[in-house]
Amino acid sequence: MEGPITVTARYTELSPTGSFDYAAVCSGRRFEPAAVLAEATSIHGLVPEAGYIWGTLRDDEGGLHSVMRRVPATRDTGAAGSDIRSLGGKLIVLSSGGGGEQLTMRREPRHAPDSNEMTRRTLGGEVAELTAPANEHGRSVALTLSTETLRYEETGIIDVSGDLVAPPLQWFLPGPDSSLLYLTQTWLVEGELLGKRVRGFLFWEEAWMRPGGRLYVDKDPLHDAEYTTWYSWANHYADGSAEVGHFLFGNGDFHVGVIGHSDGTVTTARTMDAVVRRDPDGYWHDGIDYTINGESWVCEPDRHGRMELGRIPNPQQEGRMHRVADTRVPDVWMAWGESVPGNGDRRRR
Q1: In angstroms, rounded to a whole number, what is the distance separating the alpha carbons of residues 287 and 12?
Q2: Are 178 and 44 in contact (CB under 8 A)?
Q3: Inter-residue contact 254 to 248 (CB < 8 Å)
Q4: For residue 6, is it within any domain?
């Protein structure tokens, strides 16, 4: 009889218990305005960190404009808002007028109210209002969200409204020490920005995290997954159809690919790969190539879409996302996202 078989195995690349090698899940969802930033609520042990109203608009001359504001679920009292990785409580507007110009910060919002001054209320469970009264400069904020419509006004800066274009979406990245549930919905809007007629897309999104977490700063599992890119995008076509998507990719098994279509359906990525084509400067990207469920996609950067926000670790760029084989040109489009040079241009493990 032969002796016992001895097996010596080394498992050095296994992920920590509870991380599932940074695998995420995603799907469509119902948007419930009464639950917006409901700080007394928890989902999977997570609480709302903040809401984000943001998006990209174009004016009649082709000028590109990006708008963003972080609305904390509870009043910000710490110093995290001063962290270069995190949005503070101010309205940010960037514009690019063409030529060789990139997206640069505008000064007009400097007297806008701080997000700490905003309060939330619901009307009949079907509408959420987030408002700030006029401050000493006469500037106020009014954001109204329903299951179908959005209205957003900041005195002297922006006044737009529009309709939901696709099913609301969500994705969830669990981890043993940090987790992130991300809720998102998108409206096609038009109106005025800085005195110009504009049209584009606005998103209302919420990050739900472990207590004490802050997106990009503390208890954020995206850092653990060493994500390489995160893009949110939307396309509207002349035939009235539209689609909205979120593509994230990183190391381990981390990927999110979810697309909401204007016919009410939702598509998710079972398999995904992403390769960032890095600019020779090593910081910006020159495009991102995706393979999603065997189909080729590409993010093409806008030649005026580099957001000049300082030397942040995740440079932000505007562009256009589409299937490589899709030759249609949308009449309204945006793709706002980031790459992370420090995490590499492709999956390492």
Answers
A1: 33
A2: no
A3: yes
A4: no
Residue 125 has a pLDDT of 84
Report the 10 Å Cβ neighbour count for 6: 5
Contact 303, 192 (CB under 8 A): no
Q: Which residues of the chain have pLDDT under 70?
A: 1-12, 78-86, 98-99
Number of separate domains in the chain: 1
Strand-pairing partners, residue 65, are 57, 95
Distance between CA atoms of 66 and 109, rounded to whole angstroms?
13
CB contact at 8 A, 336 and 205: no
Q: Tell me whether residue 197 is in a domain.
A: yes
Residue 14 forms part of a structural domain: no
What's the angle, vertex CA 291, arms to CA 285 and CA 293, rounded to 5? 150
pLDDT at 43: 96
Q: What angle do CA 59, 288, 258 make, to 5 degrees?
A: 80
Three-class DSSP category at 315: coil
278 in helix, strand or coil?
strand
Residue 183 lies in a domain: yes
Cβ burial, residue 209 (10 Å; 0-12/13-18/19+): buried
Domain hosting 75: range is 20-343
Other Cβ atoms closer than 10 A to 257: 23
Strand partners, 37: none
pTM score, whole prediction: 0.94
- Residue 40 has what pLDDT? 87
d(CA 135, CA 301) in angstroms, rounded, equals 38
State the pLDDT at residue 11: 60
pLDDT score of 97: 77
